[in-house]
Amino acid sequence: GAVVSQHPSRVICKSGTSVKIECRSLDFQATTMFWYRQFPKQSLMLMATSNEGSKATYEQGVEKDKFLINHASLTLSTLTVTSAHPEDSSFYICSATQDSQQGRLGGYTFGSGTRLTVV
Amino acid sequence: DQQVKQNSPSLSVQEGRISILNCDYTNSMFDYFLWYKKYPAEGPTFLISISSIKDKNEDGRFTVFLNKSAKHLSLHIVPSQPGDSAVYFCAASGNQFYFGTGTSLTVIP
C-alpha cells in the first residue's frame, strides 16, 4: 500500500531556531500534501494544503511566513518552522494523496508525525 | 470551533465483546465521514467510511452507523480483538477534513 515517510519523528530545538520536517511519498506521486498540527487533547487541525509546484494554501490563522511549506517535487514536501517558540511545540503530521477525490474518500496516507519541542 | 467531537477519550472492552465508539458533528453540510485507526508512533490509517446518503456501512467486523438527524455517527467493532487496541479518530469531509480528538480503545484479553 501507499507509504508516507515523515522525518524526524522527534525534535527538540532552542527558541529562535528553525526546524525542517520532511514528508516523502515512497511509492506514489503525491500531487497534494496536507500539513496538520495537533495540540494535546485536541484534534488534528489542518494548517495548509500544498500542490506540487505551486504555493501552499494556508488555513485561517496559520502564519505562512512562520510555517514555510515547500512542495517542489511529487514525492517531497517540507514544513519549516521558522524562529520557533515554545508555543509552537506540538505534534505535526503530514498526509498525501495522488488523487484528491479518492483522498477525500479515505485515500489519504498519513506520515507518522513529528513531535516538536521548543525549549 | 470543534466541528467534530469525540466525547470519550478512552474505552476499555473485553475481548470478544462489542466496542462502540461515538462521534458527533455540528455541520450538516458534511457529505462524507471516515474513521481512522492510529497505533503509537504511526500515522492514522483509514479504516472505514460512510457517505451521508447512507445510514450504515459494514466491512467485516467493522460497521459504521450514521444518524444524520442527530448528527451522530458510531463505529461498532464486533467481536473486539486485542489487536484493535489503538486510538480511533472520526473525520468529516467538507471543504477540508475535520478530525475528532480521538478515542483510545483498549481491548482486554
Give your account of this protein's structure.
The complex is a heterodimer of chains A (119) and B (109). Chain A has 1 helix and 11 strands. In chain A, the strands form 2 sheets. In chain A, strands 2, 4, 5, 6, 9, 10 and 11 form a 7-stranded mixed beta sheet that branches. In chain A, strands 1-3-8-7 form a 4-stranded antiparallel beta sheet, with no helix packed on it. Chain A has one helix at 100-107, and strands spanning 4-7, 10-13, 19-25, 32-38, 45-51, 57-58, 67-73, 76-81, 90-97, 109-110, 114-118. Chain A is mainly β. Chain B has 109 residues and is mainly β. In chain B, the strands form 2 sheets. In chain B, strands 2, 4, 5, 9, 10 and 11 form a 6-stranded mixed beta sheet that branches. In chain B, a hairpin with a 4-residue loop joins strand 7 and strand 8. Chains A and B meet through strand 5, helix 1 and strand 10 of A and strand 4, strand 5 and strand 10 of B.
SSE diagram, text form:
The complex is a heterodimer of chains A (119) and B (109).
Chain A: E1 4-7, E2 10-13, E3 19-25, E4 32-38, E5 45-51, E6 57-58, E7 67-73, E8 76-81, E9 90-97, H1 100-107, E10 109-110, E11 114-118
Parallel strand pairs in A: 2-11
Antiparallel strand pairs in A: 1-3, 3-8, 4-5, 4-9, 5-6, 7-8, 9-10, 9-11
Chain B: E1 4-5, E2 10-14, E3 19-25, E4 32-38, E5 45-51, E6 56-59, E7 62-67, E8 72-77, E9 86-93, E10 97-99, E11 103-108
Biggest β-sheet strands, sense, barrel of chain B? 6 strands, mixed
Give helix % range of chain A: under 10%
What is the molecular shape of chain B?
globular
The gyration radius over C-alpha positions of chain B equals 13 Å
Runs of chain B with pLDDT <50, length 5+? none
The biggest beta sheet of chain A reads: 7 strands, mixed
Helical fraction of chain B: under 10%
- Approximately what portion of the residues of chain B adopt beta-strand conformation? over 45%
- Give the C-alpha Rg of chain A: 13 Å
Helix and strand succession of chain A? EEEEEEEEEHEE
Determine the structural class of chain B based on helices, strands and strand pairing.
mainly beta
Strand content of chain A: over 45%
